[in-house]
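thread: overnight batch results

M.L. [08:02]
morning all. the overnight job finished for the chain we discussed friday. pasting input first so we're all looking at the same thing
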Amino acid sequence: MTDRAATHDLTGVAALYALGALSQREARSFEEHITDGCTECRTELESFEVTVRALGFSTPDVDPPSRARAELLARVGSSSSEPSFEPARSDETGQFVSIHSWDGEWRELVRGVLLKQLHVDPVTRITTSLVKMMPGASLPVHQHTGVEQIFIIEGDCQVAGHRLTSGDYHRAAAGSTHESTSTVGGTLFLLIAPERYEVLDAR
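M.L. [08:03]
and the structure it wrote out:
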């Protein structure tokens, strides 16, 4: 196969990469190809990424069913100031805690970004949380007050100039700044970080 023919085949892979449909090994192989300087594949990828981002906003707005408002108000009215769940414990000492996937409360950080806190260390204030980002969502520019660790569970996450997918890990040092954190098709990741960080751009 000539170099030109090989490049032509890889331009087709660009669409699958933009959709997050490649395996981890295939994605990394394509990234290495781009890094090696293939401008044709890079141009194709940029074009597909624009298209994929647009897909998330292409569906028409749909009014919720009339019963949705009544059901929501009923849930709010029945809620209390107590936590919305009680983690399952192995004994009365609280040495072991299990939280099921349906337990806990998701709260919206910014539009399209939800966080479910799993644990806060009472001494260091380091938190363990799940973060869910809807397709096309992004975080504002922010600076870390301590070390931040991310483990991608599913989907794609564009962070610090890298595209991460399921099984990938990312660490940011204390004092570092994430200029851009976003997703194309949506993502779910485990976050271990200080309880607070400094927002530099509240977009």
